[in-house]
Amino acid sequence: MKRSSFKLGGAFALAMAMLLSLILALPAMGNDQLLIGYGGYGPEPGTIIIEKQTDPDGAIESFEFSTSYGPNFFLSDDQTNNSGPLDPGTYAVSEVNIPTDWDLTSATCDDGSDPSAIGLDPGETVTCVFCNEQEPLGTITAHKFHDLNGNGVQDAGESDLAGWKMSLYAGNSCGGASLMAEGITDEAGNVSFSNLPSAGYSVKETLKAGWQNTTPICQDVTVTAGGSEVVEFGNQEVPQTGYIVAIKYEDLNGNGVPDYSDPDNEPRLDGWEMTVKDDHGNVIATGTTGANGTGRVEFHDLPVGTYTVCETLQAGWINTEPGGDVCRTVEVSSGGKTVARFGNESQCDDGDQDGVCDDEDNCVNTPNPGQEDADQDGIGDACDACNDVD
Q1: Distance between CA 205 and CA 313 in Å, rounded?
Q2: What DSSP string describes 259-310?
Q3: I need a labelling partner for 26 at 20 to 30 A (CA). Which of 8, 170, 367, 382 fits?
Q4: Which of these, 108, 91, 95, 105, lies nearest to 62 by C-alpha position?
Q5: Distance between CA atoms of 297 and 287, rounded to whole angstroms?
Q6: Confidence of residue 29 (pLDDT cuts 50, 70, 90)
Q7: Which residues of 68-88 are buried (b: 16+ CB within 10 A; e: fewer)?
Q8: What are phi and psi of 157, to 5 degrees?
Q9: What percentage of the chain's residues is helix, strand, coil (to nearest 5)?
Q10: What is the DSSP code (8-state) at residue 10?
Q11: What are the pLDDT digits (tens) for 300-326?
Q12: Burial class (CB in 10 A: 0-12, 13-18, 19+), 349
């Protein structure tokens, strides 16, 4: 019994001695050798903090980060990301998909590590700061001018146009879904779109009624860092025109009212000269009835305005419409037709009522208003029994 008691007491004493030695050695052991309370015995974890700084300060742009210790994350100005506890080792952090109008100007860690190889010691907190600077922003100015000669270039004497709507689009071709901004041209014909990052844009004008564009209605433009681009838009007024129809009829009863729906009643008359004058009395066109149908002649492409239409009175006739005057004033409207009627009554005998006096008519009893005479024998074709043209 004494022998067994001795052995048990000796083993206990040995164990206590070893525990005491371990306790005494703890102060000399580093945290990388022993940690009590963090998952048992092992090295103390470290932490990596990523901080974002921008110039200009307060930018709302988001920047994406990729790490070797976790999923990607995004930070804006003055924001930070904490990795949480990491085992000691080497880690990498990088900024990816940097916005096109931003540059990464610096990326530094406070322990001197490169962000691509951060050496994390037990219990260490490493802060890495990524700084981005925005490129200088650009400007697009749309300039509108009155292109009088329609050559697409603002020449001397061609004025600027105010009050025109211009639209700015992201990307080319003025796509509707990419509308960014709109503005109205000022007295100098300008509207500017500023604070634009380097990229491709397009500008479109909104046409006004009565105008046509002499330059492309949508124009693409590229803005570089800090650049200023001017896009020219020329416009020309669309000529506002109409036309005049002069109608000539024989007013058989002299009442100044036409009744030429039935040619046998009051027929229209061909071969009468009509003259058109502008509001200054200048002759701008002449024509002869019959040119555009029986008893009518047309004058096209006349600018909107006031005109005077006159007939050339023939011998043996008097004017009954318009009231004994051989001229009448008419107004031409845009796209419209203006009718100028002239009634005339013969003052000679005209038995066949063809508008030709009997003493001049080559067919006195047969209507022959055109006085056609193919064989030139003095007898009109309408009544020539032997129309020998051989």
Answers
A1: 53
A2: --SSTTTS-B--S-EEEEE-TTS-EEEEEETBBTBTTEEEEEEEESEEEEEE
A3: 8
A4: 95
A5: 6
A6: very low
A7: eeeeeeebebeeebebeebeb
A8: 90, -5
A9: 10, 45, 50
A10: H
A11: 999 999 999 999 999 889 999 998 789
A12: exposed
Would you say how long the chain is, in residues?
A: 390
Q: Is 306 left (phi over 0), alpha (psi -120 to 50) or beta?
A: beta
CA end-to-end distance (rounded Å), the chain: 173
Stated as kind and residue range, the H or E segment containing 14 is: helix 2-25
Q: How many CA atoms lie within 13 A of 339 on its CB side?
A: 9
Contacts for 181 with CB less than 8 Å, ≥ 6 apart: 167, 168, 193
For residue 287, what are the CA distances in angstroms to 3, 340, 380?
153, 13, 25
Cα separations (Å) of 244 from 212, 266, 278, 286?
25, 22, 12, 12
Residue 89, both tokens: 């080792």
Q: How far from the centroid of its chain's Cα atoms is residue 191's Cα?
A: 14
* CA 181 – CA 201 distance, rounded (Å): 11
Pairing of strands 73-75, 63-67: antiparallel
The answer to whether the CB of 332 falls within 8 A of the CB of 240 is no
Report d(CA 237, CA 45) in Å as an integer: 78
Other beta carbons less than 10 A from residue 258's beta carbon: 20
Confidence of residue 357 (pLDDT cuts 50, 70, 90): confident
| Whole-angstrom distance, CA of residue 153 vs CA of residue 147 | 7
64: which 2 tokens?
Answer: 């994406």
Mean pLDDT of the chain: 88
**Residue written as tokens 């030695």?**
21
Which uninterrupted H or E stretch holds 7? helix 2-25
Give this prediction's pTM: 0.51
Sign of dihedral through CA atoms 262, 263, 266, 270?
positive
